Amino acid sequence: MSAYKQFLTSDIIVTPFEVNKGFSFKQSEWGTEVQIDRFLGISGSFFTDKSTTGTLSTEYQVLVYNSVKELYYTNFLTQSYGDIVSTASLVPGNDPAGDVLVGSTNSTGRYFNYLQSTLTASRFWPTGSGAQVGVISVSSKLFGNYIQPYSFNYTFVSGSTHTIVDDGEGNLLSGSINVGNIIYTHGMAILTDASLASGSVNTLNATCSFSSSLTIYETKYKCTIRENEFNFSLNPSLISGSTDGTTYGYVTSSYFSPFVTTVGLYDEFQNLLAVGKLAQPLPTSATTDTTILINLDR
User: Fold this and answer.
1) What are the tens digits of pLDDT across the range 90-128?
2) Contacts 24+ apart (CB under 8 A), 119-123
3) Which of 195, 206, 191, 202 is nearest to 157 (CA)?
4) How far, CA to CA in Å, does 269 sit from each of 121, 247, 276, 286?
5) Mind listing the pLDDT tens digit for each residue in 226-245?
């Protein structure tokens, strides 16, 4: 048996909080459930080179190279600390048709490039013919909102054992040497060092470790029982053996106080959505309000 009371807007509070979890997967575990893929990007022309790459999915090597360059390195093609933004000055004429732009109007230095720190970024992109880059792609199903800074570790064997870690600012390090960049919010680790790019992708012995970050929303429902509410129990055990629904005499006593054991959450159609069980029966009060807090995570 139950009694219903509608929530007010002030009775429902939604609070976001962040949870983290560490993962470590050997290459033999990568697959449908553990979606970690690797790609080799090569500079060239798509019209003459249609070589493919990828462990779980198949992509064209030239397009991988161009896509990564476009997204993350377009501002860093001529200078490691960022290309100077090109600007032009407007020389007005007698009318708008006579206006003249003086200076460069190209878009160098104007791309977003997903910088991972407020510090001055330093990125290197190989631009020579046949230049190679290695890309380790982690599925968002694994890293959630983003990979936690300082948590990425990629170890592989190619001739010798190499360990690649992030420095918390979006750079990938092999020892003290900067060998690439990681985009935490995209789960993309990009190796631009020529000596590591091919080996990091083609090796059959690799381990990828990282910590994920996911925002969970906790909804708090404040169930308030006023002193004049729910002061009669609906428990069927209080009904005597008579057929007319008569309750036992002690139920009508002024000393009788019902206890709350369970709180149910219903939708507007009175469909039961969730049940909260109290650790022990809670007596209601005839003099003060009683508040029960229910927390649901999603």
Assistant:
1) 788 777 777 777 766 555 556 889 999 888 888 999 998
2) 119/169, 120/81, 120/82, 121/76, 121/81, 121/82, 121/170, 122/80, 122/81, 122/171, 122/178, 123/72, 123/73, 123/76, 123/80, 123/181, 123/192
3) 206
4) 56, 30, 19, 30
5) 988 887 776 777 777 665 66
